[in-house]
Structure formats: structure tokens, C-alpha cells
Write a structure and sequence with these properties.
Distance between the termini: 58 Å
Helix content: 25-40%
Order of helices and strands: HEEEEEHEEEEHE
Largest sheet: 7 strands, antiparallel
Shape: globular
Strand order of the largest sheet: 3-4-5-9-8-7-6
Amino acid sequence: MKNTVLTVTFLALAAIIPSTLSAQTQMVWDDWGLGFTLAPGMRITENNGETFSAERDDLHLSITPVEDAWAYEEDLANAVLIMMDAMEFERITDADEMQLNDLYGYFIEGQSQGVQAVVMALMDTASHRNFLVTMVYLPESRNQAINLFKSMYAYGD
């Protein structure tokens, strides 16, 4: 009986510990009405109402809100092109318009300074809040970067 209890306890701990170590972090940025899920192991490096950033060795996220600075869908594509030029993209692998939960925008994915990167300009069409988003990552972290982007949603007013 004692061995059975120890075995069950050990198995329960073995199941719980890995999921705790690889747990994702649900984020809500109440100042801007933006929610998203950070990839496992990312730590927040800045969260001051003007910028949100989080990173780990192979993945970096930066979000800058822009309230009503450009509130038209036509301007989103131009914003992404400006971001791409600023990051000196060497190669573009994908670019398109996107509808992401409550957000609308454009993205460009490519390579910048030897690493993969995605730049996005997003608009919450209900509130006219805008977001400039940059994700830089190593190729093996691409799926986690995409999952982070897909997790973004607008909420609130």
C-alpha cells in the first residue's frame, strides 16, 4: 500500500512539474485593451503603458500602442513597410492583410540581420486603438512566435 501511494504521488508530481515549467503566461494590457499569451519562458522586460516587451534567448516581442495617430486601414500597410525598412529586412518570406480575433492589420515576415522577424500594424476597429508589433526569433521558435501573434485580441471599449 505504501509503495502504491508513493508511486501515485511520484506520477502526479511528474505530470505537474513539466506543465508548470512550460506554462504560458496570459497577459492583459488594460491601459490599451490588448490581450495575448506569452510563449513559455518569456520574461517581461518593459511594461510601462507606452511599450510592452518580453523576451527569452530565442524570442523577442515588442508592442507599441499608437492611439488615433493613424486610424485608417489604408495606413496600416504603409506603417508595416516603414517598420520593415527601419529593421533593414534582407529577405521577405510572407506579407499579407490579416484579421486576427478583434484586430485588423497587415504583417510582413522575413529576415533581418540574420534572424527571423515579423512586423505588424494592427487596429482594433471598435476602439481605433493601433498597435505596432515586432517579433524577432530564431527559426526553431517560429511556431511559438506565430502562436503568440494568433493569441492577440482586443477587449474593452
